[in-house]
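Action item from last meeting closed. Structure (249 res):
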């Protein structure tokens, strides 16, 4: 399984508390605000905003929160101005790490992120040092109990999906970013409830970690994910399924 998918499943296990849920809402609200600021508040004319709102709905964000975030982006309500930046680096065992941040203070953010890398046995690198290892993709997940595999594949292919996996009791549909909206709409039209939907970075190859390195890598990923300005964290690590249980006991 790709490293991003592994981290996504781990995040889901760790996010079942109010504090994690609050941080998730904050990150999505920032994305909605920036999407509305850069492309306007009209969903039909702003694919990025549609994707952000899809992510918000997948975590049951209240409609009022979404509406306020859009209005902050369009200037109808006051709000902070965020700069979008990507950083790249390495974790243990040469694992590649990419992070996307939204910040109103670049110097503060890079200093905090560099410190997180260093304390967790990694290092912040130059732009471009690991980006070549990843492909930009749309990723949509659906619970297995919602629909049968053959039916879901048919709907996804109809929308333009280009890859399909099964893991952790869920289906993972991957698309070219240009067809992301089409696939999402096809699922909605056919009454399929989407668990999550996002534009993400999928690694071309993965690094399988030993248990000591896996613990260090999860510490780094968790610390980065908890950093206030970090929106998304990507990596190319993998952890054998049989090792997962021992990591959380």
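Sequence:
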């Amino acid at each position: 399984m790709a490293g991003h998918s592994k981290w996504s499943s781990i995040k889901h296990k760790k996010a079942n508390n109010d504090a994690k849920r609050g941080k998730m809402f904050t990150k999505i609200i920032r994305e909605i605000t920036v999407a509305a600021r850069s492309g306007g508040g009209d969903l039909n004319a702003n694919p990025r905003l549609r994707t952000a709102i899809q992510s918000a709905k997948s975590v049951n964000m209240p409609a009022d929160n979404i509406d306020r975030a859009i209005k902050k982006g369009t200037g109808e309500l006051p709000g902070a101005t965020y700069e979008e930046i990507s950083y790249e680096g390495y974790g243990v065992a040469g694992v590649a790490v990419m992070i996307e941040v939204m910040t109103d203070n670049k110097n503060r953010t890079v200093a905090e992120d560099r410190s997180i890398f260093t304390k967790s046995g990694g290092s912040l690198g130059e732009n471009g040092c690991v980006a070549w290892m990843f492909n930009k993709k749309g990723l949509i997940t659906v619970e297995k109990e919602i629909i049968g595999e053959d039916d879901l594949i048919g709907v996804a292919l109809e929308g333009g999906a280009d890859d399909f996996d099964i893991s952790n009791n869920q289906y993972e549909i991957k698309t070219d970013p240009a067809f992301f909206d089409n696939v999402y709409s096809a699922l909605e039209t056919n009454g399929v409830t989407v668990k999550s939907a996002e534009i993400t970075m999928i690694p071309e190859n993965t690094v399988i970690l030993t248990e000591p390195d896996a613990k260090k890598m999860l510490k780094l990923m968790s610390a980065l994910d908890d950093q206030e300005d970090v929106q998304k964290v990507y990596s190319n690590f993998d952890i054998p399924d049989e090792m997962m249980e021992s990591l959380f006991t």
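Note appended to the action item: The domain at 3-74 is CATH 1.10.10.200 (Arc Repressor Mutant, subunit A).
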